[in-house]
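Q: For a teaching handout, I want to show students what a protein-ligand complex looks like in token form. Below are the inputs, and the small molecule is 5-O-phosphono-beta-D-ribofuranosylamine. Please produce the holo structure.
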Amino acid sequence: MEPLRLAVLVSGRGSNLKAILEAVAGGALDVLVVGVFSDRAEPPAFEWARQYGVPVFSVIPSAAESRSAYGLRLAGEVQGVRPQVVALAGFMRVLSPVFLGAFPDRVINIHPALLPSFRGDDAQRQAIEAGVRFSGCTVHFVDEGTDTGPVILQSVAPVYQDDTADTLSDRILVKEHRTYPAALQLLAEGRLQVKGRRVLIDWDGRPDRLPRDSVREWQEIRDSNEASLNRPV
Ligand code: GRF
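A: Here is the structure, written as tokens, with 5-O-phosphono-beta-D-ribofuranosylamine included.
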């Protein structure tokens, strides 16, 4: 069977792109990355693409271009590499309905918080300011809202009292780099079914690899929360 054709959209550093490319090279992720696209001229992420021999494309919005005109142009460029799925990995623009309409239910994103908490920019700072004990990352389908689409996988990271947005970002990133390839692998294996707001995962016969980690992690957190709730006072 041909591997799933994946396009990745980036704006900056590209550590998630790197994690995806490494997972593919290491045999943990059965996709073919067919192109990396950016709204910037030469983001650092392009270096990772080149190292793995993936073609890069800059699609820079012009000052006069509307969001939907840009979305249309970007969709046309991305369609040129015939992807089956589009993964946003630090792409710093809200995609227009025109773009999403070109890839219905086939665009996914990673967000550095446990959605639906802390949508939008600066999610790590929002988590610190809210005083939560745990945050993490979410891989989700993209819909027309900002970070509102159905959740595929999440992983949890603790928030410490002396965290800054940077230290928390680094801790969450470690989780991101495992969770994004894991979610993509579930998608590549056809194991995801969207039912309204929920994504049902078919775990049947799934070898006990990456995605199980995030489930196990979630169970551990849940169990420890329950244990502390049930502790006699
Ligand atoms: C990540 O924190 C991701 O969750 C967010 O943007 C950041 C991108 O980082 N959407 P990188 O470019 O993948 O290193």
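A: Two things your students might notice: DSSP finds seven helices and nine strands in the chain. Residues 207-211 have pLDDT under 50 and may be disordered.
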